[in-house]
Amino acid sequence: MTTFSVYGTATRSLPPERAQLRLHVTFEGRDRGSVLSRTIQVHRQVTEQARRHQESGAATWWGADRVQASAFKEYRKDSDTTITKFRSVASVTVRFQDFDALSAWVTEIGAVEGVSVAGISWELTQATRRAAEKATRQDAVRDAVVRASDFAAALGLAEPRLEAVYEPGLRPHASGGAAPQAFASRAGAPASQAPDLKAGDVDVTAEVSADFVSD
């Protein structure tokens, strides 16, 4: 009797249904009160627009952090002396389902002083994601069956029989692995770069390992 231990993997790529936009409101200056006042004013402007996007149906959700302020030292130019400055920061997150409205707002809000786009992540709805998870898990098991059959055929053995299936990290006496289900968006940009408004597919990936035996 011969035992086969194989991996099975699967990926499904789906168009995004939601886009989560992350905005930062940041101001710096010598006067703490002035810095805070400007941040609060712009933060209120951004959150009011976010609320209107949800009310119109363009967005499904929005949230905002409180304005926070901190002091920091900055060296004077061509000098060893420092000055105390203040920085205030707040963030706003909006989840859009209308991508045209998202694009228009990014252009508009990005022109407001103190506002920067921290990033955009492309997502699926919960219902779509759960259906994709189920399908990719099944595909991963089928892939493992095909791999085991290929090995058995190459060795001139009978069709293998399944003994056990494991998700990553659950195989006994094996080191921990990655999460059993993974998601990745092909679009988005870090805060230091301009946001990518071209919606890439969302990849849903599953992986299993399985044991088969064949005579």
UniProtKB/TrEMBL annotation:
GO biological process: DNA damage response
Organism this protein belongs to: Ruania alkalisoli
Domain of life: Bacteria
Descriptive protein name: SIMPL domain-containing protein
Region (Disordered): 176-200
